[in-house]
Structures are given as structure tokens and as C-alpha cells.
């Protein structure tokens, strides 16, 4: 007689302790940490990038190359400007705007273009002011009406127009010179200098040494009045005409000096 045993089906109960950890659950924890580390690294680099790059500089900038020949500026001028404080840094640490400002401090330099060349050089382009007139006896005036100075041994100013006036009116006085000179030439008169005072009053000096005091306003009718009365001026013996004051509505006042 045989006995048959029937095995009962068994059931397995899964608990949280018995489950293996899911890769997805681990990523949920690790991913925010990675993001925070990347963010911290980015902030650190943002705040310290300049110091980090400066650390890569082995030498300060110590040479330069001019892109073209200059008329007034010498190597000594450029080196003198670049060696002023603050001292030049290396390729990564040097602010190029600082270099430009140093060169713009040279009185006759108009514009500067500069760029860094690895590892320790500068490429420099200088544009200089062009003198077109003598200004207030001791300075020069550019064609843009900018007042500047030059060492006397680098430029011969002989033959330039002689102008006087407030520095901020340089362009106005230069334009007046051109117009007055043209007006005088049509009347067979030559011009030596033009002057404007702080009130905007004009005085011109003719090439014959006579000063015309024109005052403010339109000078052309006053010049015409001078041309009309000049032949009629009776100059005393031993005297010479020094000025004609045309600021009056009619006529003029004259002045004489001894010869």
C-alpha cells in the first residue's frame, strides 16, 4: 500500500528589507549631489578665474611691436608710458584697456589700438594728432580742434596759423580762421592771427601788423568797413597804425604807436 503526500504550495512574502536597492533610487540621491558640486565649482571658477589665469603667467609682458611708423612718437616715449605704474602683468593677467590708457596719456596720441600676443608681447597701433595751428602761443591745435603739445625739437611750427582762445573753443576758432582768411584774400588783405575771448569777441591781426577789433557777431560787414576807411586814415608823422576798433555801429576808432 502506498501513501501519496501532496505538497502544499508555499508562498513567499516580500518585505522592504528583503528587496535589493534599485539603481534609480540611488541616482535620485547622487544626481543632486553632482549638481551641487558642479554649481559650487562653477561659482569658484567665476569668482577666481582671473587669479587662476594669472597663475599661468610665467613672465610679465616685456616687448611690443608697432604696426606702422609714427611721426612724433619714439620708442622711448612708448617704453616710458608702459613702464609707469601699475606695472605690466603677464598675458592672461594684463588688462588691455590699462595699456591703451597709458599710451593715450602721451599728449599727442589721438587713438590707440592694442592687443596681447602670447606669451609676453603687445601689438600696438598709434594714431597721432596732426598740428594745423599754433594755439595760445605754447600749444598746438589739431584739425579736429583738439589742443595738445609736442616737444619743440620734433616739429617746426613756422608758417602755421596763430590762434588764441579758450581751449574748448579750438574747433570754432579754427573754422573762423579759414572763413576770415578767405574773406580777407578777396579784399587783397593777409591774415596773421585770429583771437576769440571768453565772451566770444573776435580780434584779428593782419599781416601788415594792424589789429582789427571786430567784437561779437558777423565780422564781414566790419571788415568791409575797414577796407573802406583804411585809405582815408590820416597817420601822423613818426607814427604807425596799430589797431582799428570796428565794434561801433558806424565808423571806427584807431590807435597809433611810435615807429
TrEMBL record:
Annotated Gene Ontology cellular component terms: cell division site; plasma membrane
Sorted UniProt keywords: Cell cycle, Cell division, Cell inner membrane, Cell membrane, Membrane, Transmembrane, Transmembrane helix
GO BP annotations, alphabetical order: cell septum assembly; FtsZ-dependent cytokinesis
Membrane topology of the entry: Single-pass type II membrane protein
InterPro entries, sorted: Cell_div_FtsQ/DivIB_C, FtsQ, FtsQ_C_sf, POTRA, POTRA_FtsQ_type
Keyword Zinc part of the UniProt annotation: no
Domain of life: Bacteria
Compartments, as annotated in UniProt: Cell inner membrane; Membrane
Pfam families per record: FtsQ_DivIB_C, POTRA_1
Signal sequence region: none
POTRA domain mapped to chain residues: 59-129
Transmembrane segments: 28-49
Protein family per UniProt: Belongs to the FtsQ/DivIB family. FtsQ subfamily.
Record function comment: Essential cell division protein. May link together the upstream cell division proteins, which are predominantly cytoplasmic, with the downstream cell division proteins, which are predominantly periplasmic. May control correct divisome assembly.
Subunit-structure text: Part of a complex composed of FtsB, FtsL and FtsQ.
Name of this chain's protein: Cell division protein FtsQ
Amino acid at each position: 500500500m502506498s501513501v501519496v503526500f501532496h505538497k502544499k504550495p508555499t508562498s513567499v512574502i516580500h518585505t522592504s528589507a528583503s528587496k535589493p536597492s534599485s539603481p534609480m533610487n540611488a541616482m535620485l540621491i547622487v544626481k543632486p549631489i553632482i549638481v551641487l558640486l558642479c554649481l559650487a565649482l562653477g561659482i569658484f571658477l567665476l569668482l577666481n578665474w582671473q587669479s587662476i589665469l594669472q597663475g599661468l603667467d610665467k613672465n610679465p609682458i616685456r616687448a611690443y611691436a608697432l604696426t606702422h611708423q609714427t611721426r612724433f612718437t619714439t620708442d622711448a616715449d612708448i617704453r616710458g608710458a608702459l613702464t609707469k605704474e601699475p606695472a605690466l602683468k603677464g598675458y592672461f593677467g594684463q588688462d588691455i584697456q590699462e595699456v591703451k590708457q597709458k599710451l593715450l596719456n602721451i599728449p599727442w596720441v589721438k587713438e590707440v589700438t592694442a592687443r596681447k600676443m602670447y606669451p609676453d608681447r603687445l601689438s600696438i597701433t598709434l594714431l597721432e594728432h596732426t598740428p594745423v595751428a599754433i594755439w595760445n602761443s605754447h600749444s598746438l591745435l589739431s584739425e579736429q580742434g583738439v589742443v595738445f603739445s609736442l616737444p619743440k625739437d620734433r616739429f617746426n611750427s613756422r608758417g602755421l596759423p596763430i590762434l588764441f582762445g579758450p581751449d574748448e573753443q579750438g574747433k570754432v576758432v579754427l573754422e573762423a580762421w579759414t572763413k576770415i582768411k578767405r574773406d580777407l584774400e578777396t579784399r587783397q588783405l593777409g591774415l596773421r592771427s585770429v583771437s576769440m575771448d571768453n565772451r566770444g569777441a573776435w580780434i584779428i591781426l593782419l599781416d601788415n601788423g594792424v589789429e582789427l577789433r571786430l567784437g561779437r557777431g558777423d565780422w564781414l560787414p566790419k571788415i568791409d568797413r575797414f577796407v573802406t576807411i583804411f585809405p582815408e586814415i590820416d597817420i601822423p608823422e613818426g607814427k604807425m597804425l596799430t589797431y582799428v576798433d570796428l565794434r561801433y555801429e558806424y565808423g571806427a576808432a584807431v590807435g597809433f604807436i611810435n615807429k
